[in-house]
Design brief:
The chain is mainly alpha-helical. The chain has one domain. Helix content is 58%, strand content 5%. It has a four-stranded mixed beta sheet with strand order 1-2-4-3. Helix 1 packs antiparallel against helix 4 (97-109), helix 6 crosses helix 7 (171-197) and helix 11 (265-279) packs across helix 13 (300-315). The longest helix has 27 residues, at 171-197. The N and C termini lie far apart (47 Å). The structure holds zinc ion (ZN). Zinc ion binds at residues 188, 192, 207, 210.
């Protein structure tokens, strides 16, 4: 059934998805900060204050928007592929006392459900998929093809909190960076999920392709905040790169990393920076030469255009707005640097 699509809906209903992710993650990052830094015991209240600072009219608007979004879950919109499934939320038992309260917060606030609603309103999928934040036993985030589930681990959020702490200016900045990097990781896993569920082709390494998707979604559709989130994603890989450089790993241990299906952490760091620069060369010119080498930078606008166009082409048949919003963001915003750069 074809229905008129809400013009506010777009590729991953980005603004609402971001807001819901932001609130969800801010809540639990705040909890980590409280656990590890008692003097900031009102940190998560600060986040909730900002989220609750809407006046009554705005709250009503949000409520109406949420109803609109829910209503789109089973609608076909302009997607040409059938919408036969939905993203749903599953909670798991948590044993580590550090994560118990966070798990309870998720259940009470229904924030994961709101994220699922946003994705359901945006994209048509042929089967049901589960989203869960859970205790995994190690810092990780992954798409599990057996259980058809996107799994985000509390341990990863805890690790990111510790990784970012030395470089954060203050607790607010720490929260923003962790939320940004976790959002990047979530959309990366959503990318793996979509490649599997929609049987999308990926001629390069899938890990690189879904880093591209995450960067594209954040940059193209989430404004300044999305740009900051993408930067946090890049910095999280830069921190891992730095750790490896200082780790004294043997050649054999490094070989395992070179052989891995993921690009090396340092490559992921430079890739994401390249796409951020390519998206808006004028705004991000300061990245060139420090740290992004100029030799790479000249190609980045082309790289960004190609990855954005490729992902939009792949996903368009499944997008309930027919890809209208995303298609406006497949070109760099400023500058023509590198448009005629030969491909080596
Ligand atoms: Zn991956």
């Amino acid at each position: 059934m074809k229905v008129s699509s809400n013009p506010r809906r777009c590729f991953f209903a980005a603004s609402n998805l971001r807001r819901n992710l932001f609130l969800t993650l801010a809540l639990i990052v705040g909890s980590f900060s409280i656990a590890s830094c008692k003097r900031n015991s009102n940190l998560d209240i600060g986040f909730m204050d900002s989220s609750n600072s809407n006046n009554t009219n705005q709250s009503n608007t949000t409520q109406n928007e949420n109803m609109d979004v829910k209503g789109m879950a089973d609608k076909q919109g302009q997607a040409t592929q059938p919408d036969k499934g939905n993203f749903t939320v599953q909670y798991s038992d948590v044993r580590n006392p550090k994560y118990v309260q966070m798990n309870e917060n998720f259940k009470k606030q229904h924030l994961l459900e709101n994220i699922a609603d946003e994705i359901n309103a945006t994209i048509a999928i042929p089967e049901n998929v589960t989203i869960t934040f859970r205790e995994c036993g190690q810092p990780n985030a992954f798409w599990d093809p057996k259980t058809r589930s996107i799994n985000m681990c509390y341990e990863l959020m805890e690790q990111m909190t510790e990784d970012f702490r030395p470089v954060a200016k203050n607790e607010q900045d720490l929260n923003d960076k962790v939320v940004g990097a976790m959002t990047f990781a979530f959309i990366h896993e959503l990318g793996h999920c979509l490649i599997d569920v929609l049987h999308l082709p990926s001629t390069g390494r899938e890990e690189d392709a879904v880093d591209q998707l995450s960067t594209f979604v954040l940059l193209a559709l989430n404004g300044e905040e999305g740009e900051r989130m993408a930067l946090s994603g890049a910095i999280s890989w830069g921190i891992q790169y730095d750790k490896i450089a200082k780790s004294g790993k043997t050649a054999g241990e490094l070989n395992m990393l070179w052989a891995d299906e993921h690009s090396m952490d340092g490559q992921r760091f430079y890739n994401i920076l390249c796409w951020i620069f390519g998206h808006n060369p004028e705004k991000y010119m300061a990245l060139v030469n420090s740290p992004l080498p100029e030799q790479r930078a000249v190609r980045c606008p082309q790289e960004y255009t190609k990855l954005a166009t490729a992902w939009l082409t792949l996903l368009k048949p499944y997008l309930k707005d027919g890809g209208a919003k995303a298609s406006a963001h497949t070109q760099p915003m400023t500058g023509n640097m590198g448009n005629n750069t030969p491909t080596k």
